[in-house]
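Per your request, structure below.
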């Protein structure tokens, strides 16, 4: 029951699988739960990890857009481990630049996965976090670029250190509604669905870290958002400068912050450096 355990979402390929490998290569001493929506692809990824000599990698199905799926994972962790030591919310999607779906549809689908999915998994699994746990929400430097393209009013809201989760959820809903109407730019939103969802992930991380400090002071839990960088994956394309292994470096670094560390916490980190929000 006391065996350490790490969960990586969206981990059957790309950055997620590289994070699993990175934890293994760094000598993570517990089990690593590789999750994916597609059971076949997830099991194949686990077999790949085992063939590389990493026998502490296990599969559990998780569709982050399905709250009951997150609940099933919670029950599994509770029964088999009694807690959770590392959570890396990596699963996410991005539409290609040449996508033909209407912008409103892109906004709704991207938000459901990148923001709401991350929030739902967090709500299901946070009660299991043990003292000194590490939580990493994979965001993007694109969130900072998108923030700069928001109206001054929206920027002030997203930078407000006291913004609540409820207020943030309301703003994310407003963006999708405006995108579906086609007046998002007129209302001060940027013309990027992916970037706006990642604003949500970065700000959510800041809120979650603040709440964690208030409700579990003294437990030494560290929670951060991170940017892997522009990585060669199916999602980002083959022209990106970083390999998946290089993209995994910062998430793995944050997951393995030593027990006595007090920072970073509630930050946006890329290339292992804190960047001002």
């Amino acid at each position: 029951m006391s065996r350490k355990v790490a969960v990586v979402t969206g981990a059957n390929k790309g950055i997620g699988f590289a994070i699993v490998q990175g934890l293994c290569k760094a000598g993570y001493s517990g089990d690593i739960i590789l999750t994916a929506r597609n059971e076949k692809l997830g099991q194949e990824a686990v077999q790949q990890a085992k063939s590389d000599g990493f026998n502490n990698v296990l599969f559990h199905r998780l569709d982050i857009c399905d709250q009951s799926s997150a609940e099933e994972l919670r029950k599994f962790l509770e029964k088999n481990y009694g807690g959770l030591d590392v959570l890396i919310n990596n699963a996410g999607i991005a539409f290609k630049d040449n996508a033909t779906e209407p912008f409103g549809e892109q906004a709704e689908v991207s938000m459901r996965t990148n923001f709401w999915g991350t929030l739902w998994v967090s709500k299901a699994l946070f009660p299991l976090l043990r003292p000194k746990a590490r939580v990493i929400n994979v965001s993007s430097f694109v969130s900072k670029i998108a923030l700069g393209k928001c109206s001054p009013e929206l920027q002030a809201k997203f930078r407000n250190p006291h913004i609540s989760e409820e207020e943030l959820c309301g703003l994310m809903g407003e963006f999708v509604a405006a995108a579906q109407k086609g007046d998002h730019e007129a209302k001060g939103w940027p013309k990027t669905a992916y970037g706006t969802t990642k604003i949500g992930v970065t700000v959510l991380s800041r809120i979650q870290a603040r709440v964690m400090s208030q409700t579990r002071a003294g437990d030494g839990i560290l929670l951060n958002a991170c940017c892997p960088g522009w990585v060669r994956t199916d999602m980002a394309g083959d022209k990106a400068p970083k390999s998946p292994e290089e993209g995994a470096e910062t998430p793995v670094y944050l997951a393995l912050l030593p027990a006595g560390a007090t920072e970073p916490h509630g930050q946006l980190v890329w290339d292992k450096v804190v960047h001002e929000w």
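The chain has a mean pLDDT of 95.

Regards,
D.
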